[in-house]
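Human:
I keep going back and forth on a fold encoding question. Comparing notes only helps if you start from a blank page. Show me how you would write down a chain together with its backbone fold. Write it directly below this note and I will take it from there.

Assistant:
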Amino acid sequence: MAATTKTLTRPSRSWTRQAAEIQERIAALQVELKRILSKTAPPKVRFDPHEAGHELTIRMQEAEGGSWTGAELESRFGLTPATLHRRRKEHRIVHWRDALHQFHYPKWQFTPTGALLCGLQEIMRYFLGPRRQFDGRRALDLLRAGEVGKVLAHAKAHAAENTW
């Protein structure tokens, strides 16, 4: 037992040498790991709102079949600029304006005959109109304030009751 205690308190030279080699290997591995991680670390990205808006516009232009311009809607379905203007002003149609001030209208909101999808106007009115259930605020205002749950709960309740 005395020999065992002596071995534990006084390591042999070969054990000390092995421990030193292991520590050197660990240090070398740490250096190599830091080098690898520095190469694979994601670059720091700054948020560019203009770039984000541009990417969103591109996605909207391509989503669900793309979009039509006002001129295309007029030639295809006979929708006049005055009609489109009125629908935009009344928030009855989804649209955006490009850098050349040309309006675009997603194709998904139209039926094959050029009419708006049934229910779209009511949803737009719900989304953009003030609601007494939201203390006179719009669903859009609540979403911007981060109150998504309140808007979803209200929409689900009305969908279940079919009282849009």
